[in-house]
Amino acid sequence: MPPFSADEEHAEAMRKLQVLPPRRQPTRLRNRDSIDGRPRAYNRKFGLSRINLREKAHKGELPGVVKSSW
Question: Which one has a higher pLDDT value, 18 or 43?
Answer without folding.
Answer: 43
